[in-house]
Amino acid sequence: NVHQNDLTLTVENDALWFNQYHKEHSLFNSLDHIESFFSFPEMEKCYLTLDIEHFYSTVLFTLFLKDKENEDVKSLYFRDFEKSYIEFVEKNEDRFLTELHKTLDTYFEKYSSKINLVHLVGTNYKNYIHEEAGKLPLMGEHLPVSMDKKDLMNYKYLLSKLLDFNFAGYVVLEVAFRPAQYRILESIVESKQKLTALLSDLKSQTVLN
């Protein structure tokens, strides 16, 4: 029984990407899935974990599939898919970002009261490729928060949305362990500092307005 007094169930939106689509897609990755989930009365007391990066990859891959609707994407070798996806995002970046923000706007509008956890990382949607076959996370996923040209996460948008509905839950930094590239503890501390500074700035702007 998920409604016991001492138990809270929160469901995270998963990512839809080539490595999962090739076998069987994730079961909870879209607005339609979330709406269907909450259509069951017994799920009404459940909460949501917002994984913002998963929406980045899901929206991007969904647009890619629509663009390639007459092609057998599943049959592609993963390196061929990655080459095709990189070409796609370079040509359709504005279209992707428009659809992403449309999706997120709807998500916040409908489900902001359900969010009790946020998973946040740096991300580079132009580099969602494998370092080697089967290795996860992808090279552009689960990055430290750097807010530079390699980090394409729109933190200002996300934090502004969280402020809009007085989010009182937890933000979890899911930075991947990559010892050859950075020291994990230092990168997490620096990521938190950058987010705290931006959040403080946004709060100040809200007060001034």
Structure commentary:
The protein is α/β, with parallel strands linked by helices. The protein is built from 7 helices and 4 strands; from the N terminus they run βααβαααβαβα. The protein has a 4-stranded parallel sheet. Helix 6 links the parallel strand 3 and strand 4. The radius of gyration is 18 Å and the shape is globular. It starts with 9 loop residues before the first strand and ends with a helix. The model has no long low-confidence stretch (mean pLDDT 92).
List the helices and strands and how they pair.
Blueprint: E1 10-12, H1 18-21, H2 31-37, E2 47-51, H3 52-67, H4 78-91, H5 93-111, E3 115-120, H6 155-164, E4 170-173, H7 184-208
Parallel strand pairs: 1-2, 2-3, 3-4
Helix pairs in contact: 3-5, 6-7
Q: What ranges have pLDDT less than 50 throughout 5 or more consecutive residues? A: none
Mean pLDDT: 92
Cα Rg? 18 Å
Termini separation comes to 46 Å
Question: What does the overall shape look like?
Answer: globular
Q: Biggest sheet: strands side by side, in what order? A: 1-2-3-4
Annotation keywords:
alpha/beta, 7 helices, 209 residues, globular
